Amino acid sequence: MTAGVDADAVRAYLRGVARRGRPVLYRDAARELALEPPHTIHQLALLLEQLMVQDAQADVPLIAALVVSKQRNGLPAPGFFARARELGRYQGPDTGIPAREYHAAELKRAVDYWG
Question: Nearest 5°: phi and psi at 103?
Fold first, then answer.
């Protein structure tokens, strides 16, 4: 992983994203965090999962909801939903109306809390 980019750095970056009030694409977040190849999106995903665990333990909104995929039409990657299920935060599928509704609610909570 890129030196200097850890979960704390990602959280600090995402707090700025929350203040803007709209999500950021994975590729843009990876670029702005200066993650270095190879596998920059995977690096970012691992860091986001760390943040999800921290947020669930602290019982606060998932700041990782602020990062979305262009290919998934504004939803996070399936790993977001899988981790949310593991953490007891979500029980539905990775796609469809339940995923969209859950993400919209979590995104709003994240913007309101972290912004």
Answer: -65, -45
Q: Please spell the DSSP secondary structure of 60-108, one letter per residue.
A: ---GGGGEEBTTTTTBPPHHHHHHHHHTTS--S-SSHHHHHHHHHHHHH
Contact 48, 68 (CB under 8 A): no
Q: For the chain, which residues make up each domain, given as ranges?
A: 7-114
pTM of the model: 0.94
**Burial class for 71, CB neighbours closer than 10 Å (0-12, 13-18, 19+):** exposed
- Measured CA to CA, the distance from residue 2 to residue 84 in angstroms comes to 26
pLDDT category at 39 given cuts 50, 70, 90 is very high
- 1 pLDDT band (50/70/90 cuts)? very low
